[in-house]
Specification:
Blueprint: E1 14-19, E2 24-27, E3 30-32, H1 39-50, E4 54-59, E5 71-74, H2 78-88, E6 94-97, E7 104-106, E8 125-127, H3 131-137, E9 143-150, H4 154-164, E10 169-174, E11 186-193, E12 198-205, H5 206-221
Parallel strand pairs: 1-4, 1-6, 4-5, 6-9, 9-10
Antiparallel strand pairs: 2-3, 7-8, 10-11, 11-12
Helix pairs in contact: 1-5
The structure holds cytidine-5'-triphosphate (CTP) and calcium ion.
Cytidine-5'-triphosphate binds near residues 101, 129 and 132.
Amino acid sequence: EDEYRKTEWLKGRRVLITAGPTQEKIDPVRYFTNPSTGKMGFALARQAVRSGADVTLITGPVSLHTPKGAKRIDVVSAQEMYEEVLKHYPAADLVIKSAAVADYRPKETFEHKMKKSPGGYAVQMERTHDILQELGTRKEHQYLIGFAAETNDPERYGREKLEKKNLDAIVINNVAEEGAGFGTDTNASLFIQKSGREKIYPMMTKDQLAEEILKEASQEMTGRER
Ligand code: CTP
Ligand code: CA
């Protein structure tokens, strides 16, 4: 039944994973979000537990069961995710940021429900923190993996993110491709490590992809202190 054998790839490692979308409130009954369902991050958490890791999963609002053995922390907004991630970062050995974090939030959140009126209205937006960028800046011993969701020229944009955010590796997804990206059970990706190692992963389940990513990361981490 459990097609994934247990391994010891990440035995003794502390793994921090983010998953899901964030919600950015306009008023008590309205928010901005994105189509992320959290499946990739939860698959990573599940496989990391199976690899013997001590797993912390920080997730936006999703409707998925917590992987057995993972410590789950629920957050709603990009700001909350930022705060929780920074709290857990110093102790982590491997960090994988698969969450689809909002880049913008409404500048103002109304305390009471806005009433509709005949005309349209404009919402002013402001930037959220780029959590991954901040982790890259503060990186010490951590092996840091980011995701890139792209619809055009994925490889170029992905490489730029690897560089700019000071990552050790990036998983690049073409979310315009059928069966890849948001909401699906499968993904096709290009995985590029800072070390120069690159892998093309054809369409496979998110659990299979998670296993591949964790195997690659654990190999790069051998020799690092546990
Ligand atoms: N990310 C983050 N905090 C943000 C935005 C993105 O930590 N506020 C992380 C995501 O979790 C992902 C990576 O950055 O691991 C790339 O996200 P993506 O949306 O593809 O790239 P951005 O850097 O946000 O650039 P853009 O959306 O303009 O392509
Ligand atoms: Ca973004």
